[in-house]
Each structure stands twice: as C-alpha cells, then as structure tokens.
C-alpha cells in the first residue's frame, strides 16, 4: 500500500491550538479531574440559530474541519471520514433525560436524531453540501486510526484524491459523574497526577476535535507522509516489544531509524505499563508524551497526530513533551503509540514530507 500525505492539520483541544505559534504557550494542568477544550468564537463560523441546536462535538468539528479544508485549499473533499468514541453524548443524555422526565410520552425526536454517532460527519457534509462518501468509525481509542486506514484505502484504490479525516469527542456531566464513580477518572486525593511515574489508577479526562486533509499528492504545505498504521484490540504486556518491532520490520525500519516516539502516558498505573515497556525499544530516540496537555479521551490520538505533524513540519520538539533529554538535529520518522485502558492498541508511522 503506497503512502499518502497529510496536507493540513487543525485541532481544537484543551490547549489553544487554533492560534499560530501555539508551541510556546503549551501548559499542563495536572490538578483537576476534567479538562475542558478551549472554545473558539463559534459565531464566526456557524449561524447563531444553528449553534443552539449543535452539541459541542459538532461545533468543534465544524470549526476544525473548516480550518483543515481552508489550509489544504480544498472546497469539496472526495470523502468525509470521522472517528469518535462516544459520539454526540450531550444529545444522548438530553434524550434519555426527556424519556425519564416525560414517562416515555410526548417526546420530541430532535435530541435522538442528533445523538447518533454519525451526526458529526453528516453535519460537516450538510454545511459543505458534499454528497461524497461519508463514513463514521466508532472503535473507542482507535477510531481515528481506522478513519485514516479507510482514507488511505480510498486514495490508494483511486476512489478519492483528497479526503477530510477527523476525530472528535465531547464531555457530558452525567458521563463524567459515572467515570468518577467507577474510578476511570482519578480521585481528588490522587491529584496532581504524575503521568510518567504514577502509583495510582485513573486518568484526567479531556475532550477535543482534530481534522486533517489526506491527499495522494505532496503539496508545498504538506506536514507528513502517512506510511503505515497497525491496530490490535488486545495485547499482552509481554508482547509489547514484539508488537512494535514487528511493525517496524514490516516497514523496513529498525528502532534506530525512529527519531521520535510519542507515547500515550495517561497517569493510570496499570495501563501505562505498556508504554514503559515500549520505551525499552527506543534507547536512542526522543521519547515524548502528550496526555498531560490534552487529557485522556477516546480520540486523544487526534491531538498527538496533530502535534506530530507540527513537529515534522517545524523540526522542533516542545520541551514540555519530552520524557528524555535526547535531541535530534533532524526529525524524519515519528512513531505514535496509543491505547485506552489497555485495549485497542495502535501504531502510526509518520515520515517528514
């Protein structure tokens, strides 16, 4: 399968990633249980009458996709592919609350219609009046990676030349309450979180949306070449090294060819063991982490992909992301490794365009 190019990258996250030169202003907040995304001025992009009916995931995605298409100079993509773990959960909660409050009678269908996971991809298509291939992947923490794989296949098979690919997840009050109860989210007494040497369970939860335009041709604005992706649902901790080295061998690479590795350390003691084992493979690579900047959520890998794109393009690694002191004069190959609570492991290989 031939490589495709990431020709634009846009992200709405806990950081102010829509502004230029955001690298200098990255800040980590490790003392709260839940991190909120920095909202742009949605009124600049979406008519006020529509904003009221949109969940946060749809609003974030509408703006992020707008920036991605604008940067790539594309008005109509040949396909729209979106990954999400939780979908439009705000509207899901509103619908279920209506069911309970109204004793399952006299229900308005609006919240139910807008609660489906493919609402994000559908709303983007409606806004663009785009009738092309439109698909949504719901595969927890590998939703974006499956979306990238689909886009890669579409381009390699000649079905599309430019594909809008993105991922988005939002927070809701009730879900966050449940996550606190089942200890998915760290307890107050376990804060501030230690992401790299955690002795406690649970994570700090985040949210965000990241969108990219993948194309078959390299442009002067290209960020990276998407070389390969590998996904596995279950992985025994002792198989981590084989999982990674096998992927590198498939791409005719050795560990010394990888200039930077971005690992998804979340501060959860049990599941972070995979990343600790992965570090053993890369003794001479720059080791990076990112979830102290984005929070953990189903499609947090969108944030790491966005950061990897900027690292490759600007040839600069933010100090706040560094685990070790290894500094490269040139960053050519970046490997991204992510999972959520020990499931749905993904490897993504990006090369400087």
Indicate the topology.
Blueprint: E1 4-12, H1 48-51, H2 56-72, E2 79-83, H3 89-101, H4 110-114, H5 119-128, E3 133-137, H6 143-156, E4 162-169, H7 173-181, E5 208-215, E6 224-234, H8 240-250, E7 260-263, H9 273-279, E8 286-289, H10 291-294, H11 301-314, E9 333-340, E10 343-352
Parallel strand pairs: 2-3, 2-4, 7-8, 7-9
Antiparallel strand pairs: 1-5, 1-6, 4-5, 6-10, 9-10
Low-confidence stretches: none
Strand content: 15-25%
Apparent shape: globular
Care to count the β-strands? 10
Helical residue percent band: 25-40%
Helix-strand sequence: EHHEHHHEHEHEEHEHEHHEE
What strand line-up does the widest sheet have?
3-2-4-5-1-6-10-9-7-8
Distance between the termini: 17 Å
Number of helices: 11
Instruction: Compute the average pLDDT.
Output: 94
Task: Classify the secondary structure makeup into a structural class.
Answer: alpha/beta
* Rg: 20 Å
């Amino acid at each position: 399968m031939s490589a495709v190019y990431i020709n634009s990258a846009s992200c709405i996250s806990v950081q102010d990633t829509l502004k230029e030169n955001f690298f200098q202003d990255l800040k980590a907040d490790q003392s709260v249980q839940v991190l909120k995304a920095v909202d742009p001025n949605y009124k600049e992009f979406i008519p006020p009458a529509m904003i009221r009916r949109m969940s946060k995931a749809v609003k974030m995605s509408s703006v992020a996709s707008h920036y991605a298409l604008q940067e790539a100079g594309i008005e109509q993509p040949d396909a729209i592919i979106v990954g999400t773990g939780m979908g439009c959960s705000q509207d899901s909660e509103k619908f279920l609350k209506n069911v309970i409050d109204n004793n399952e009678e006299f229900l308005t269908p609006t919240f139910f219609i807008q609660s489906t996971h493919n609402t994000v991809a559908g709303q983007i298509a409606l806004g663009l009046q785009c009738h092309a291939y439109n698909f949504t992947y719901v595969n927890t923490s590998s939703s974006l990676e499956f979306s990238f794989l689909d886009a890669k296949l579409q381009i390699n098979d000649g079905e599309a030349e430019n594909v809008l690919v993105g991922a988005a997840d939002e927070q809701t009050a009730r879900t966050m309450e449940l996550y606190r109860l089942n200890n998915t989210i760290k307890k107050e007494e376990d804060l501030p979180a230690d992401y790299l040497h955690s002795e406690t369970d649970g994570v700090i939860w985040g949210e965000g949306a990241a969108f990219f335009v993948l194309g078959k041709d390299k442009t002067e604005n290209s960020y990276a070449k998407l070389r390969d992706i590998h996904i596995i649902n279950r992985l025994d901790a002792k198989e981590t090294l084989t999982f990674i080295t096998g992927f590198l061998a498939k791409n005719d690479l050795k560990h010394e060819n990888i200039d930077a590795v971005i690992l998804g350390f979340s501060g959860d003691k049990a599941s972070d063991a995979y990343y600790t084992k992965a570090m053993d493979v890369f003794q001479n690579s720059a080791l990076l982490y990112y979830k102290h900047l984005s929070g953990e959520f189903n499609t947090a890998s969108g944030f790491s992909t966005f950061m990897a794109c900027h690292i490759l393009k600007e040839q600069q690694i933010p100090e706040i992301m560094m685990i070790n002191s290894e500094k490269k004069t040139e960053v050519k190959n970046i490997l991204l490794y992510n999972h959520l609570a020990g499931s749905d492991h993904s490897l993504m290989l990006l090369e400087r365009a």
